[in-house]
Write a sequence for this structure.
């Protein structure tokens, strides 16, 4: 089992190192989430209040995650690296877990910029809202890296990914918005935890079938 | 195993007979609803269609699971056909639901109707299934990716339903409650006959479509063999 986790760590480290060298994804995500927040300032009428802003924060987060997920499997697509990984003597689900952790690291980095910016520009965020963001990020990355692998195998990669991902992300948005606006955020946080557990197990079990020929 | 199944023409005949019986029961046997009048009778169509759509999605996921489990190629087409039928019935659910909402409440769409919103999410999800499927090269990998996505669909159904219930708390602070008509015997009978008719109809359509698709595949294979 320790072998499994060292495989996962090696795969995640590879993605982070690639990003440090090429800087393909993270700067784009940071710039995108900030631009979206500015666009939202102009999209919201001035009397619409904080409630609407919380909703739009979630739109910004989901689309920023989509931007990162769209590039998640690009390094593996080039020069048949994915075939090599599939043939490597490690459990295939380790590839998925490594990719999920790497995308989670990018998303958390983007959120580390987006949440303070949101608090500064729009409305304050309490602890429950931040916990909601953390739990939803896990769900976004586990499901997202699986459907991104599906989309990467298809012809219309960039077009297909949002179509596959958004219906699956609707429960996450419900839980996330609920945890930031509801008076009783516990229910929504528990729901997000449930979502993470169900879809993480499903993705973990299913990944092998997505990448093998 | 195929030959043990009852023949399609026989099933089709039973489905037609049951549909006729359902129409008679819905309009002549079941009593008129005191609150909603004639418009309540769409209930006998709308709810069975929705349940049939769930059954189709469930069948699609079951065939997908069989495909991943046994690697039997034929389950791919069966899973796809079941989901295709489910999507057709899902679209009909949205349509009949909108008509019922218009007749009862005067609007075409109500976000407080959990089932309708769930069907909208599922409809989007399964439309994406077709986009995904037709954007992959035919072969073992397409079969498996489609199967995994179909399995995600049945996991999404309860999770989304829970989410939509939870969302009502902050989108609609007062939960809309519709007093379900207390069904008496003849109403329940009409409902059951209508449901049986639609289930059988869906199954016949599934078998016919499957038959067509199999013939298509066989013809293509034959043509390729003859030309090469």
């Amino acid at each position: 089992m320790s072998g499994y986790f060292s495989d996962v760590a090696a795969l995640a480290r590879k993605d982070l190192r690639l990003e440090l060298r090429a800087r393909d994804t993270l700067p784009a995500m940071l710039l995108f989430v900030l631009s979206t927040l500015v666009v939202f300032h102009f999209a919201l009428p001035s009397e619409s209040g904080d409630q609407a802003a919380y909703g739009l924060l979630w739109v910004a987060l989901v689309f920023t995650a989509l931007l990162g997920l769209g590039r998640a499997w690009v390094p593996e697509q080039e020069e048949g690296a994915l075939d090599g990984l599939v043939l490597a003597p490690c459990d295939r689900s380790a590839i998925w877990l490594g990719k999920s952790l790497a995308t989670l690291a990018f998303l958390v980095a983007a959120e580390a910029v987006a949440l303070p910016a949101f608090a500064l520009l729009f409305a304050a965020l309490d602890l429950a809202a931040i916990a909601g963001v953390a739990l939803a990020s896990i769900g976004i990355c586990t499901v997202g890296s699986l459907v991104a692998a599906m989309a990467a195998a298809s012809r219309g990669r960039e077009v297909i990914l949002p179509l596959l991902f958004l219906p699956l992300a609707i429960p996450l948005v419900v839980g996330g918005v609920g945890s930031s606006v509801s008076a009783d955020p516990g229910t929504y946080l528990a729901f997000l935890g449930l979502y993470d557990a169900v879809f993480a197990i499903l993705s973990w079990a299913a990944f092998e079938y997505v990448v093998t020929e | 195993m195929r030959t043990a199944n009852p023949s399609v023409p026989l099933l089709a005949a039973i489905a037609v007979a049951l549909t006729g019986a359902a129409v008679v029961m819905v309009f002549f046997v079941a009593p008129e609803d005191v609150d909603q009048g004639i418009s309540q009778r769409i209930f006998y169509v709308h709810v069975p269609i929705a349940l049939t759509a769930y059954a189709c999605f469930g069948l699609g996921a079951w065939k997908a699971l069989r495909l991943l489990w046994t690697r039997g190629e034929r389950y791919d087409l069966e899973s796809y056909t079941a989901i295709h039928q489910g999507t057709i019935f899902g679209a009909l659910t949205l349509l009949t639901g909108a008509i019922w909402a218009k007749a009862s409440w005067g609007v075409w769409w109500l976000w407080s109707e959990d089932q309708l919103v769930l069907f909208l999410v599922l409809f989007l999800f399964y439309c994406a299934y077709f986009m995904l499927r037709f954007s992959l090269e035919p072969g073992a990998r397409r079969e498996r990716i489609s199967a995994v996505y179909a399995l995600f669909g049945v996991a999404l159904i309860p999770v989304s339903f829970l989410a939509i219930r939870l969302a009502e708390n902050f989108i609609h602070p007062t939960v809309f409650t519709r007093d379900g008509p207390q069904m008496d015997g003849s109403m329940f009978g009409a409902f059951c006959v209508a449901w049986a008719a639609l289930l059988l109809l869906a199954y016949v359509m599934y078998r016919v479509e499957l038959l067509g698709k199999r013939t298509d595949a066989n013809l293509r294979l034959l043509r390729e063999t003859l030309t090469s």
